[in-house]
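Sample pair:
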Amino acid sequence: MGTRPSAVATLVERTSRYTAIVALPDGIKAEQVAPHLTRSLLGIPPQLRRTLTWDRGREMAEHQAITAATGMPVYLCKPRSPWQRGTNENTNRLLRQYLPKGADLRTFSQADLDAIAHELNHRPRKTHGYRTPAEVYADS
C-alpha cells in the first residue's frame, strides 16, 4: 500500500523468490484487483502456477473467479499470521527500497514496476548460494 488508494500487488514464487509486481491503477477493490492479478498469473508457466497464498485483505474477495480463470487455488492466511507468507513479506521489505511507504504508487507505470522486479530478480541471494532468483527460476 502507498498513499490511499494506491497499491501494487506482489507475486513471489516461493522457491526461487522470482518476483512480479502488478500495477493496480483502477483501485484496490476486489473487482478492480482481480483482472490485473489474473492477467499477471496467466503469464506464469502452468507448471509453476500451482497455488497462491494471500493475506486476508478484502481485495481478494474475488478469489474464486481468479481460481476459475487461472486454475490456481487461492489459500488465505490466518488472521495476524504474516509468517504464513514469509517469502512475500521479505520481498515487500526489499521493495521498500524502491517504493517507499507513503509514496503514491499510481505514479509508477507497469513498465516502472517491471524494471524494479527485474532488478530484484537479478540480485544475487545468499539463500541461493549467490545465484539470482532469475537463474533459479529458469532452472525450474
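The beta strands are 8-12, 19-23, 52-54, 74-76.
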